[in-house]
């Protein structure tokens, strides 16, 4: 098993020193080992209300919505998306710069609610948590407005994509 | 005690309760991402992922049960038609531009051209629904051959047949990660060990990503 991996190790020329350095980052298709999960929810008088979107291995998209207040029903949908869809999503994540951020200074989850964003992409694994963010004002007032803004917009773009996918496939109107 | 810790991750590839514990092929093989960040990794934080999908809450509905019989990667029909995804769209493109181009292959039942929430420009992708398989297929065949504002549009199927799964709930990764941590960052030892001993389980979950 270990010998197989030798093929994947690439040798690159360091631009600064000119020395050859071994980089242990196999050039492989980022859609192959991709995972993403986003959760937003809170516990209140309508119980545990939440929305969770998950892209599992192999393009399996899962959509869960426990919004008892508006729909009085739990929605659980699952469909497999093509590689082209994953590429759109991965490009979105890459361009957002979220993989370079850190949640250290973000407001912690509280009684208002919780958001979780977990992504495995290109040998990096982020698992961020924060509270619910209602507006850009809250982002600006935080200790890490730039980082939180990246998160804030990325989440909207991801939700937009997933709601289009789920909406078109199942003909349901996802509740935001 | 040391032996216990080493054996646990293997058991948890597919837990005793039948739940998937890991995601991505690499992680199933025991190759963990080398970089991790974020409070969500912190074991001290209480998470309630199990309660989110307890009992019938863990049953995810697919559109068509027959879906699982379709070869993974082959296009599947959505409830009212066939959906294609168009990528590499110019940021200033309008829905009407796409309508003009793609109505050629069949009447467009639905179109979603989503915008970047930050810039207000097109996000670069669009979803189009055709009623008939043949219409959508014609559009897919034109992938790379249609231009809009100087950019070649790619056209692909949106939904495909996937691997059936019996697993419920979200996949837990942290359990495994924390054990790996306990072992004092013995990355290499952990990797090779889990690779060889996890082999039997991996085969059950191997999925084909072509599509």
Summarize this entry quickly.
The complex is a heterodimer of chains A (176) and B (211). Chain A is α+β, with helices and mostly antiparallel strands.
Can you walk through the features of this model?
The complex is a heterodimer of chains A (about 180) and B (about 210). Chain A has about 180 residues and is α+β, with helices and mostly antiparallel strands. Chain A has helices at about 1-5, 85-95, 135-140, 145-170; strands at about 10-15, 20-25, 35-45, 45-55, 60-65, 75-80, 115-120, 125-130. Chain A has a single domain, classed as Mago nashi protein (2-Layer Sandwich). Chain A contains 4 helices and 8 strands. In chain A, strand 5 and strand 6 form a beta hairpin. In chain A, about 45% of the residues are buried. With about 210 residues, chain B is an alpha+beta fold. In chain B, strand 3 (about 110-115) and strand 4 (about 120-130) form a beta hairpin. In chain B, helix 1 runs antiparallel to helix 6. Mean pLDDT of chain B is about 70; it is low at about 1-20 and about 165-210. Classes of the chains: A alpha+beta (about 180), B alpha+beta (about 210). Chain B: This is RNA recognition motif-containing protein RRM.
List the helices and strands and how they pair.
The complex is a heterodimer of chains A (176) and B (211).
Chain A: H1 2-5, E1 10-13, E2 20-23, E3 35-44, E4 47-56, E5 60-66, E6 74-80, H2 83-96, E7 114-121, E8 124-130, H3 136-141, H4 145-170
Antiparallel strand pairs in A: 1-2, 3-4, 3-7, 4-5, 5-6, 7-8
Helix pairs in contact in A: 2-4
Chain B: H1 2-11, H2 25-28, E1 35-37, H3 49-52, E2 82-87, H4 95-102, E3 108-115, E4 122-130, H5 133-141, E5 146-148, E6 151-157, H6 174-182, H7 187-197, H8 199-205
Helix pairs in contact in B: 1-6
Region (Disordered) (chain B): 24-56, 174-211
Keywords (chain B): RNA-binding
Organism (chain B): Cavenderia fasciculata (Slime mold)
